[in-house]
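Writing this down once: the sequence line spells out the residues, with the fold written below as integer tokens. This is how one looks:
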Amino acid sequence: MNRSPRKLLLRNANVVLSNRIFINAAILVEDGLITAIDPSGAAQIGDGKTLDLDGLTVLPGFIDVHIHGAVGVDVMDATPEGLREVSKYLASQGVTGWLPTFVPASDENYVRTVGAISESMQSTEFTGARILGLHYEGPFVNSAQCGALHTEYFKIYSRPEDLDSLPLPERGARMITLAPEVTGGVELVRELHARGWTVSIGHTRADLQVLNDAFAAGARHMTHFMNAMSPLHHRSPGPIAWGLSRDDVSVDVIADGIHLDPFMLQLLLKVKGSAGISLISDAIAAAGKGDGDYQIWGETISVKNGRTANAAGSIAGSVISMLDAVRLMLSLGVSHADIAQMASTNPARLLGLDHVYGSIETGKRADLVALDQAGNVKLTLIDGRVCHNRQ
């Protein structure tokens, strides 16, 4: 039996494309794909559902490539049910895809959590933001730039078999943050790149030569830029100077006003441009829960006025969502088109998924978020299905 296509028409939307915005336009979705974008807004469908967005701004759904948890759920301890709770919360924040992000931990912890992620990715139950793969933050990083990561689980690299301790889901993107100056670091970059990993430089004190060697081996991105890396110094250029100088290296940033002063965000935009920056949350399990003390990663992490701190006083991730990062960038005068690039297009491209996600184009998945003028999420679509609606 032939099944009729599942159709949805979005009308009266301000549609943010890569190089323009269509005012009061229409988007036609069929079976989860964007099949037409009508700038006139006159499109009609004979069957299916029509949603009048009444001037809401529609962007591609946000993609968070660096997030450790939310709503009380820590990725490192998560069950499939817990991951679904995170996905539901993220959808309410305009996020349509995410990478659960590991901190350095025991091999047993890795295996257990990858099992939960694999089960969640294989589930046909529609619950919220889709898991796109996995991000390892460490364990091949510099203990002198550990941040809130636990150094007892840090590793060095000597042979390809060392990667057997990093289990992966059967499918999905694979990303890793590493410091190329650790023992065997550049060879590690080369091996990971050959295996199809997205290699990002972070928690590092690498000098220019090592950074250039890592680039030649396949590292093209930098994690939570300016945080957990040696500071910029005019007589000792390191990772920050290197990242600023390279147009062929992209960076991601935690735009919470804490990890980076808003002035620094504006400076980064001026130097790197929106094409070179991805927004991330780096959120921990306390995100969405408010101020308080939380047991995360085997220690107490306090949240006060939106700032995290572990017992040593180090910032331990954030409690923002991608929506909070978007709102901050909007408050700095960043255009919706640049927001779409930093929150959606660039993360999708980083993971090699931009042929499917990350922009509003015909043939791509209908992963969309509609914002009002105050930056509130009014509607989130994933695969053309409404998974959050506050209209």
Summary: The helical segments are 80-92, 107-122, 185-194, 208-217, 239-245, 262-272, 322-331, 336-350. DSSP finds eight helices and 22 strands in the chain. The longest strand covers residues 7-16.
